[in-house]
Fold:
Amino acid sequence: MRVGEISELICTPEYAYGASGSPPKIPPNSTLKFEVELIDYEKIADTTADKIKFATDRKLLGNEKFKAQKYESALNFYEKGLKFVESTWGVEDENEKKQFESLKLSILLNIAACCLKVKDFIKVKTACKKALEIDSKNVKAMFRLGSALAALNEFDESFETLEKARELDLEDKGICVEIENAKKLKAAFELKQKNLYARMVKGI
Structure:
């Protein structure tokens, strides 16, 4: 079977629950039919080429799940793929090192996109900062990091990050929209803090 493939498995009574069955759901002498999907498998990556291939395969599977809006499943594939290219230790060929870094960057950005969807903003922050260690001018990483920081109420760093992204890509209107969203989040947060303080003072 290939990853993602679904097979039908039929078990006759002698290979299932036999004459006793499994009451109340399975009557005696029942033939059972199962659908089995191969989600993933673990294989030892002996060479650098293997690591690149396995990471790429899992990235592509993650992309399919992401498009299907199955974000947790997509994240699982991305994180497994990342393990194969997380370190370039022992990789001597410069072209292979570049492939590792490029693939690692792409997977980290995808992890950030997934985590934004499921509102795991701490993971978004971690993934984007790792991505920016590889490419300090990556606009996608800055955009996603800025969004996550605003959601975490870290507004100063959020504005700084989003402004850097805007300077690098003046034509991306989405960055301007995100800056305005961050401003609204900050205003709402400050109002909430102000009201909380007023209630505390009133209660003294």
About this structure: The chain has a mean pLDDT of 92. The CA atoms of residues 67 and 74 lie 9 Å apart. The first helix runs from residue 48 to 67.
